[in-house]
Design brief:
With 400 residues, this protein is an alpha/beta fold. It folds into 2 domains: 3-47 and 300-397, Alpha-Beta Complex (Aspartate Aminotransferase, domain 1), CATH 3.90.1150.10; 49-298, Aspartate Aminotransferase, domain 2. The chain is built from 15 helices and 15 strands. The strands form 4 sheets. A 7-stranded mixed β-sheet has the order 2-10-9-8-7-3-4, sandwiched between helices. α4 (102-114) runs parallel beside α5, α4 (102-114) crosses α10 (263-276) and α13 (301-317) packs parallel to α15. The longest helix is centred in the last third of the chain and has 17 residues, at 301-317. The radius of gyration is 21 Å and the shape is globular. It binds 4'-deoxy-4'-aminopyridoxal-5'-phosphate.
Length: 400
């Protein structure tokens, strides 16, 4: 009998609302129309050859079997030293740092390790798209509050700020976890030291844990310092800190990151981790451990990306796009509703489709980062690109 004619048994979807992400859709559309892809967040330039050589060396040294479940010791010790030197908090590399298959696995595993049915998890929208499905798979309930959009007299979004009242209203005895993200994808907003103090006050007297997504920790500009959750003693005691080498070293395809958290949290995290991925590929870990020893490799990142940000912003200055501030990340948000064309009236998703197919530059609608799409007239460009790519994109955008 023809196997293909036998229908599969049906079963209820665990994630009925999840479809193909807008990043995949926009990248496919960009490829189809030969548009310049400033949509999905990944560099179009190569990583440092030294890093590749370090991984090659590890492979040739036969580091090709399972590493320890929690990650290669050299890498965990290196991360511990790095965090101590940058953020003045010591994580024990034996009991408090775990290597993950990228930030996304760290986020999912952290959520699965502490969230159960009936638990509430607070997220701040616009939010990275993995948070909500991870919470749902854990059986938790997502409580979304929105960043405050600050507008000028014409109604154009000028900047975003933390919605403190909504956050404090959302916290209650069922709150198991609060997820924050700084520097923030997609808005580029960064948290200040005073914001962490305020969060600490909010979390005080509750049992809420915090997941701090800091994968853009080294993309912070104009002399600002990244305010890591680990730098705040009160918060560090209740937090999972997430980071990703993909962002820091221009190797998003390698999917290696880490989670640092107090021993009690890490113990639970590792219980899930060992059956989720068990281990993360060995030669990459040795290579990264080696490369991490040279602090310049991450210390030079703010000026490297600030140059790209400034170049891209300068090119947009003469256009009718309204630039939002970009204190961090490699994303530039713009308000397009001021453009003198009929398309300025389109919703964000339709505007991005038009921009990709007709202008030849792909961008991501901010509405895609909300569960119930709100239309703010703001879209996101990624400037982690070669200057030539940015220059080509600017030429097209300047013609609108
Ligand atoms: N968090 C945020 C806010 C991100 O933008 C990303 C990557 N797009 C991640 C986490 C995941 O990082 P990774 O690619 O290492 O899984």
């Amino acid at each position: 009998m023809d196997q293909a004619l036998t229908p599969s048994p049906s079963f209820p979807s665990r994630l009925p609302k999840v479809g193909t992400t807008v990043f995949t859709v926009m990248s496919a559309l960009a490829a189809k129309h030969q548009a310049i892809n400033l949509g999905q967040g990944f560099p179009d330039f190569p990583c440092n050859r030294e890093l590749i050589a370090a991984v090659n060396t590890a492979m040739l040294a036969d580091h090709n079997q399972y590493p320890p479940m929690v990650g290669v010791a050299e890498l965990r010790y290196g991360i511990s030293e790095k965090i101590a030197s940058l953020y003045r908090h010591h994580y024990n590399p034996e009991s408090e740092i775990t290597i993950t298959a990228g930030g996304t696995q760290g986020i999912m595993t952290a959520i699965l390790s502490c969230v159960g049915p009936g638990d509430e998890v607070i997220i701040i929208e616009p939010a990275y798209d993995s948070y909500r499905p991870s919470i749902e798979l854990a059986g938790g309930k997502t409580i979304a509050v929105s960043l405050t959009a600050n507008r000028d007299e014409q109604g154009h979004v000028q900047s975003y700020s933390i919605p403190w009242d909504a956050l404090s209203n959302a916290v209650n005895v069922k709150t198991r976890l609060i997820i924050i993200n700084t520097p923030h994808n997609p808005t580029g907003m960064v948290w200040q030291a005073a914001d962490l103090d305020r969060l600490a006050k909010l979390a005080n007297d509750t049992n809420a844990l915090i997941l701090s997504d800091e994968v853009y920790e080294h993309m912070i500009y104009d002399g600002r310092q990244h305010q890591s959750i680990s730098s705040h003693p009160g918060l560090a005691a209740r937090s999972f800190l997430i980071s990703s080498f993909g962002k820091t070293y221009h190797v998003t395809g390698w999917k290696v990151g880490y989670v640092a958290a107090p021993a009690a949290l890490t113990t639970e995290f590792r219980k899930v981790h060992q059956f989720n991925v068990f281990t993360v590929n060995t030669p990459m870990q040795y290579g990264l451990a080696n490369y991490l020893q040279e602090a310049a490799h991450y210390l030079e990142l703010p000026s490297f990306y600030q140059q790209k940000r400034d170049y891209f912003r300068a090119g947009l200055e003469g256009t009718k796009f309204k630039l939002l501030p970009t204190p961090g990340t490699y994303f530039q948000c713009v308000d397009y509703t001021n453009l003198n064309i009929p398309q300025a009236q389109l919703n964000e998703a339709d505007f991005c489709t038009w921009l990709t197919t007709e202008v030849g530059v792909a961008a991501i609608p901010i509405s895609a980062f909300y569960n119930e799409p709100v239309q703010s007239g703001v879209i996101r460009f990624c400037f982690a690109k070669k200057e030539q790519t940015l220059s080509n994109a600017l030429t097209r955008l300047q013609q609108i």
